[in-house]
Amino acid sequence: MANARDIEELSNVWIPMPDGTRLAARIWLPPGARTEPVPAILEYIPYRKADHTAPRDSRMHPYFAAKGYAALRVDLRGSGDSEGLLQDEYLEQELQDGCAILRWLAKQPWCTGKVGMIGISWGGFNGLQIAAKQPPELGAVVSVAFTDDRYSDDVHHMGGCMLVDNLTWAANMFASTSQPPDPATVGESWREQWLDRLRHSGFWLDTWLRHQRRDAYWQHGSVCEDYSAIKAPIYAVSGWADGYSDAVFRLLRNLDAPCKGLVGPWSHTYPHLGEPGPAIGFLQECVRWFDHWLKGVDTGIMAEPRLHMWMKDSVQPATSYECLPGRWIAERDWPAPDIARQRHALTACGLELNPDAQAAETEPTWVRSPLHVGLYAGKWCAYANGPDMPHDQRLEDGGAVVFDGPELELRTEICGAGEVTLDLASDKPVAMVAVRLSDVQPGGEATRITYGLLNLTHRERDDAPEPLEPGQRTRVTVRLHEIAYALPAGHHLRLAISSSYWPLVWPAPEPAKLTIWPGTSTLDLPVRPIKTQDAEGLNPFGPVDMADGDPMTVDAKAEQNWWIVHDLAKDRVRLTVRQKDGPTHLLNQGITYAESNDEHYAFTGNKYDSVRAETWYRRELRRPGWAVTTLTHCVLTSDSEAFELHADIDAYEGEQRIYTHSIHNRIPRDLV
Known about the structure:
This protein has 672 residues and is an alpha+beta fold. Among the domains are: 8-150 and 220-331, 3-Layer(aba) Sandwich (Rossmann fold); 340-528, Galactose-binding domain-like (Jelly Rolls, Sandwich). Helix content is 15%, strand content 37%. Strands 1, 2, 3, 4, 5, 6, 9, 10, 11, 12, 17 and 22 form a twelve-stranded mixed beta sheet that branches. The longest helix is centred in the N-terminal third of the chain and has 16 residues, at 92-107. The protein is globular and about 75 Å long. It starts with 7 loop residues before the first strand and ends with a strand. 51% of the residues are buried.
């Protein structure tokens, strides 16, 4: 590796767009690139290169530069120090800007014209979306924690249900897009640009709530609409605790372009920073990928199995884990031909493993879940920054109908996506179902293995939902998230079915009673045989290695906590989620940033019109002689007919409030 002192860092470079807007880039060049051009690696996201992501960027991109790549971190239009406005996710303007960046890169004297893209979350999304545009400069992509389907597998919806993270993500971006560019970079125009952002960036939840079914809005940017458009090689990466792991398997099944997959134990983070652990030497793996596709070096990476996964061992239920026990497994292809489907019948006695049994009519059971089912579900997308993982599922099972399997005589390894087929009826035209599969230990503790959701009006199609006919039996299939999980002998499976899952999912318009006929309902699980090569101790990744990073100090330890308070006198329940970081001082940049988030989820009794989600987000930036603060407050409530949306923003320069704005809209429910 080149000495870090020999790497040339350009703290801000302006990249001109065709319309004259300038995007801000931080660039690291390897030694000698000015005379001997090198390939480039681009990360293109809206999270502020000069402060918010600077600590992470400075550990990753100089590493790539030391390995012979020009590494770039570019702020999206209207974010960080870049000019213009950022008014929603993945707009066509963003993708065209990305293609323009690639063209600009290819023309630089220090670049060979070959470019790779890397990104997590937003950057994982737009790497794929830009690949689908087929820019000739793009030679390979590493997408981490991403989706190929913006409607059915993103922070907004799942199984046609509206995720409550739809609000929290909107609130997060409301706060983020309200921050100004840095005057040390852009000069005196910073205040004018800031006011422009405050006036015009908008509160995106208002738009998202007006698209409650799959339509052209969500199809844009969903590369699943045409997988064949992607020609560039894709390395697809995620973690089991992340909300986006299913997309890895869809790309492996559907891409014609070269594709590898990697799924570890991690939450929403890069694998070299992976939590829960074990973290891996992911940057070395990225260099092997880019060396193969951008430098033509035979690193052997394409001769290896297409998919590596962390097979999780059984664990006690907890809301956070430092490290998840398990082992690496590999599959030459996906779907793996030797993974068998194991069918379980739902019976009056529980789960019965009898794949050859014919469906038999039985007495029905029913469930009308209380709203507290879901309080211990954790986040849809865990960040492993506190108790955001699902807790002991016994705390949820009392509000569900439960089917227990027999005690396992042998170790069983689930690998893939299970399915639950339910023969049911609802007494309401709009209803949902949540299905959880748990590992029940000999002591009774229940660890959630995987789960699935379905808005029953979306039982046939997401683009054309239809209300249920109350009392009419129908068969629906609920797909469970992909997983690799090993249950030891002596444990047993539990399937729990509920009619609500708050606050992970926004409830139906009113409580629904679901009648379920167990005899004609089934659970299908993918079971992987234990292979001889697994016993050889596969260890495909090296130790964590990265650059030292920018020097910084932090005034206080980050605070992350969850509190559940049940006021028994008023029968009111309130879940509070708090995250508070910093202040963090970036010594090279001379800037300090701090942020705090408070989220509150409440309901009274089992009154569906009492559910309330509320966020308070604070963002601060300071340098000598300059201090700015933005405060946002968002509230989402509903009745049986509509959503009520309230949002406020206040911006301060020093102690003086320089901008305030309020939004209040009522948006009809569309079979949600």
